[in-house]
Amino acid sequence: MKPIDFEEAKAKKEGNYTPKRLAGDLLKAIEDGKIEKLCYVIKSKEGVLEVGWSEMWTTEAIGYLEVGKQYIMDDM
Q1: Strand 49-53 to strand 39-43: parallel, antiparallel, or no bridges (unpaired)?
Q2: Domain residue limits at 18
Q3: pTM of the full structure
Q4: Beta partners for 50?
């Protein structure tokens, strides 16, 4: 029997998208061959921001992050 993560189940029920759920969905998409390139920004529990990207030009990663920024702003 698979253990139940009650915090994750509660978040999903409430429509919240946790880092664990996001990472799981992303890993599945990578394993399914749906992801060609990836860039990310995370904030650690210590408040430190980290940025990373897969194999691509730095300017390409910057462009993807700008597009992501615009998506977020459009959704506000």
Answers
A1: antiparallel
A2: 1-35
A3: 0.75
A4: 42
The number of distinct structural domains making up the chain is 2
Residue 20 shares a structural domain with residue 40: no
CB atoms within 10 A of CB 60: 13
Task: Give the separation between CA 24 and CA 31, rounded to whole angstroms.
Answer: 11
For the chain (76 residues), the mean pLDDT of every run of 10, in chain order, is 78 84 95 97 96 97 97 94
User: Per the structure block, which two tokens stand in for 31?
Assistant: 């394993």
Residue for token pair 């915090």: 7
Cβ(50)–Cβ(42) below 8 Å = yes
If asked whether residues 8 and 20 sit together in one domain, one would say yes
